[in-house]
Amino acid sequence: MTMVNRNFDVDLIENADVYDSEGAKIGSVGQVYVDAQTQEPEFVTVNMGLFGAKETFIPFGATSYSPGGLRVPFTKAYIKDAPNIDVDGHLSVEEEQRLWDYYSTDPSTGRHGVDTDGPGVDADADKMVAHEERLKVGTEQREAGQVRLHKRIRTENQSVEVPVQREELVVEREKVDPNSAEARSAGKIDEAGRQEEVVTLHEERPVVDKETVATEKVNIGKRTVQDTETVSGEVRKEEIDVEGDAKPGAKH
């Protein structure tokens, strides 16, 4: 299969916008490939991706044209998953077969999709699609715990040694020298006996008072720790067994 000659009557769709089955624009027409023998158009490429950097093949027979653009019965995601084939102006037999195999089945139902009628593909053949379940794993956020800070008052006894001073009375007696000045200046005896001296003694006593001082500061915060957990679950998978006298691949 080769790229179509631009003189072929497909000029109407040249560079036309392409819309998927949901009506969303997915790109523009790139090239049309025709069968080398019949010269009938078989595939059309669609420029997709950033700035149309990727061209993806779509069966020409599945498309419909209107002045608004070219419409295809596939979703954008389904078209993007089509076989990745180089757009070099020629398709090999193997490349054609990969495209027909991909587009001959409806991705949503497992039945035949659009009538592609590609070479080597029997559009009326019965098909069976096997399915399997796969685990879909995600994460959710939930509370793992709460922390509360509160203060309590605890009473305890403290003993502190405080140095104190006190005065004590000291009495010293000594005889007066008869020749001393005190002996010569001695007065008369106080007949009333009223002479006295008063000595005041002092002492220190502990005084207890209290003051409040800061002793500890607690800071709290949160941090995210990355961890890995392994999850498991049972999944079901369909397998297709072939029964009968005919062997797979046998021609009748």
UniProtKB/TrEMBL annotation:
Occurrences of domain DUF2382 (ranges): 128-242
Which InterPro entries does the record match to this protein? Answer: Bac_photo_RC_H_C (IPR014747), DUF2382 (IPR019060), PRC-brl_dom (IPR027275), PRC_barrel-like_sf (IPR011033), Stress_Response_Assoc (IPR052967)
Q: Region labeled Disordered — which residues?
A: 173-194, 229-252
- Superkingdom assignment: Bacteria
Q: Name one GO biological process term.
A: photosynthesis, light reaction
Amino acid composition bias (Basic and acidic residues), ranges on this chain: 185-194, 234-252
What is one cellular component GO term in this UniProt entry? Answer: plasma membrane light-harvesting complex
Q: Which Gene3D superfamilies match?
A: Photosynthetic Reaction Center, subunit H, domain 2
Residue ranges of every copy of the PRC-barrel domain listed in the record: 10-75
Q: Fetch the NCBIfam families from UniProt.
A: YsnF/AvaK domain
Name of this chain's protein: Uncharacterized protein (TIGR02271 family)
Species of provenance? Nesterenkonia sandarakina
